[in-house]
Design a protein that fits this description.
alpha+beta; TATA-Binding Protein; six-stranded antiparallel sheet; two-stranded antiparallel ribbon; 3 helices
Length: about 160
């Protein structure tokens, strides 16, 4: 019984150290994620929007990527291109940790924040009405790997949209 009582302070100190390290890690991730944005949408010299590829990033997946590791098919749609972004926005707004940052008739930028550590990923969509596809890019703001999270996010969105656009 006395050994258990003597161990209690050590266990409490260890628990407090672990909690403090977790909080420090969470604050650092939030700080560095908030100050870095993985934007893939940009304008060409003629003012047209374009969606960049991943340029060799390991924590990125895009329909415009040049490498097979990062490449994913764009989301195909039939019907009115003007409704595509609105439907995608509705779906994203219903997902946990997601927030639409900007949108217009042909493009969207949303962020996804993980609940435990607060990592932020950026999702960008550019509608190509002429070809009936929505080009998509999802990239993590920090880290070397996303453990497949960005590819899973795009495939999940594609599955939810099936038959709706």
């Amino acid at each position: 019984m006395t050994k258990t009582i003597k161990r209690m302070p050590k266990m409490i100190i260890i628990a407090l150290i672990v909690i403090a390290l977790f909080i420090a890690l969470r604050v650092a991730i939030s700080f560095f994620s908030a100050n870095k944005v993985a934007i893939g949408l940009s304008k060409t010299d003629t003012g047209q929007l374009q969606l960049s590829g991943c340029h060799g990033l390991r924590n990125c997946t895009a329909s415009t990527a040049k490498t097979q590791r990062n490449l994913i098919a764009p989301i195909s749609f039939e019907g009115n291109a003007d409704e595509v972004i609105d439907k995608i926005t509705t779906i994203i707004n219903n997902q946990s940790g997601a927030q639409v940052q900007t949108q217009d008739a042909r493009s969207l930028w949303a962020t996804f924040k993980t609940p435990l550590l607060g990592y932020i990923d950026d999702l960008e969509i550019l509608v190509d009405a002429e070809n009936g596809v929505a080009h998509i890019r999802s990239a993590s703001r920090i880290g070397q790997s996303d453990l497949g999270a960005n590819r899973k996010r795009i495939e999940s969105l594609r599955q939810i949209l099936q038959g709706k656009i």
